[in-house]
Amino acid sequence: MNALLRWCLERWLNWVLLPISLISFVAPASSQNLKVTLLGTGSPRPVMERFGPGILVEAGQEKLLFDCGRGATQRIYQLKVPFAEVTALFLTHLHSDHIVGIPDFYLTGWIFGRRTPLRVWGPAGTTEMMSHLEQAYQFDIHIRRDVDEKLPAEGAVVVGQDIDQGVVYHNRDLKVTAFAVDHAPIKPAYGYRVDYAGHSVVLSGDTRYSENLIQFARGSDVLIHEVLDPEAYRASDHLYSSEQKQKVIDHHTTPEQAGTVFSRVKPRLAVYSHVVPFNAPELVAHTRKTYSGPLEVGEDLMSIEIGDEVKVHRAPK
Q1: 97 noted as active-site residue
Q2: For 101-127, what is the mean pLDDT?
Q3: Are strands 158-162 and 118-122 parallel, antiparallel or unpaired?
């Protein structure tokens, strides 16, 4: 009887432990992937189809937010990502559509779990802007910290840092590099390259055609680039004069120009975000004049997993 029990136990252990050993073998490879989620793919226009600019990059245990436009906080909550796990915020430039969501992310993140200071990297002016957040919301902070919920004080602290071109964040296998782009007269403006465990994604920020971006993006797996379709933009509403619209066109990238960038960089996947106008119908057709490689027009909550394969997942409609 003991021999029979021993035999049964050994068989049971082999059956149970085999899947566990397989899981422990597979998990490290999966954990080396980069996951990129487009929180918002729009511009200043407050449409429901495309929220304001914001991209979440998940690398191992770190979750990094790039730009914080309108609705970024709702999108993070919608994804069920704990606010305390978003460890850093990086700004491409200080145009309002890229930063208007910061107060919401700052205060709501504190209310819902962040217990450490909010750390923000961005172009010159970032440190000064961040230094005023605590003053602007001092009443709310005082009530929640000292009177009512007694939330931890450290979670209401903001630490801003002005950056220049170069590596701005480095933690083991994770490296974030800022590079100057050409969004003049808006200066400075940066794009970012994120490298993690042998994989990489490049975020253009707002820019016209940029040789510096091409240089920093070479060798990347995925390039996420802004785009403005001049024809569709000129035909959009009449809030701006023709002269005003032309000034906007002049410091963004057309689909044909973006296609040239993609052709020179040769990423495994090219993706459009910050789409202007939000409903431009011919982006792919115009891009195909200069680029024939893999291309996606980004949508809010689209995620891209970067590993041995590059996999795109669209949010359910």
Answers
A1: yes
A2: 98
A3: parallel
